[in-house]
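Reopening: structure tokens for the 3-isopropylmalic acid complex, inputs below.
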Amino acid sequence: MRIAILPGDGIGTEIVGEAVRVLDAVARVHGLKLETETALVGGAAVDAHGHPLPESTLSLARAADAILFGAVGDWKYDKLERALRPEQAILGLRKHLQLFANFRPALCYEQLTQASSLKPELVAGLDILIIRELTGDIYFGQPRGRRTATDGHFPGAEEAFDTMRYSRPEIERIAHVAFQAAQRRNRKVTSVDKANVLETFQLWKDVVTEVHAQYPDVELEHMYVDNAAMQLVRAPKKFDVVVTGNMFGDILSDEAAMLTGSIGMLPSASLDAKNKGLYEPSHGSAPDIAGKGVANPLATILSAAMMLRFSLDQPAAADHIESAVRAVLSAGLRTPDIWSEGQGAVRKVGTREMGDAVAAAITTTRKTTKS
Ligand code: IPM
Ligand code: MG
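Re-run output (same inputs, fresh job):
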């Protein structure tokens, strides 16, 4: 099993380092042969090669069975032309590798209900799955650019424009992914759109409704995105699978992340049609805390678990990582982002110590089950 490791920028190197150590631990226990190769991506690649996604990094990612990705971006690149900004690395990987299906599960661990910004009873037991279409929408729509306005409120002024677009097959394939995911869960899909205003999302709604006919065992509801943003903080447990476009999914998944206590807890998988995937925490490179050793590595560690499950067909190893994370939370270890007094919190730890603890828990839980 060949894994491309792309740590990227900011806290990326720190959190990916811990995930790799956890993968090593689980590979030892389960007798897996994981070959890893690391490459530069994002700002780090801009500094070294003058491009955020060098050809060498892209071909490593193409050749791998799965990709473990950290995060990209730093304010210092804000002045570069868009094509050279670090964010283009992750967008380029998604597009080149056709990673159209983005899974962002938001799970509230019982040990962390106090860390959520919502009342504990609203989030206790929360388990929702956001499925975000990842290679279409206004993120990739053409044309885009700047020009001089010829009409509108300010003719003659400089204006910028991006194009929101979705094709029928793009919507069909993500709808199938969502309905099939719901069949493995609680059989409910909420399709989030803005069909009351946008033609793109009227097509979205129509196509999702059509595809639904093939899944009579799954309940489908449609919801406007503004309402969905509200319902997510009002009664998040009413959702099961949420499927939406690239832009709305970006926003709603950050919102859902906070329900779980911290965006530092939210893993993600971005899959192509054959379940090859890129796995990354849902959060960014957090330049403000980079290099301080305080970032929460759990989202990345949990992303590595998703990688074992979805792309490498190792569900037992994936379960093992997830139960090790639970064990460490139960033991009271907390990085600063999930620290709150009470509720079993015992010690504030840094990135390294959290990674060490999960790796150690993998070894000890195995010993317990054997004896
Ligand atoms: C995410 C991020 C990216 C996105 C950025 C870094 C381009 O916010 O994965 O959610 O907008 O998709
Ligand atoms: Mg985002």
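The CA atoms of residues 138 and 164 lie 4 Å apart. The domain at 1-104+266-371 is CATH 3.40.718.10 (Isopropylmalate Dehydrogenase). Marking as resolved unless the reporter disagrees.
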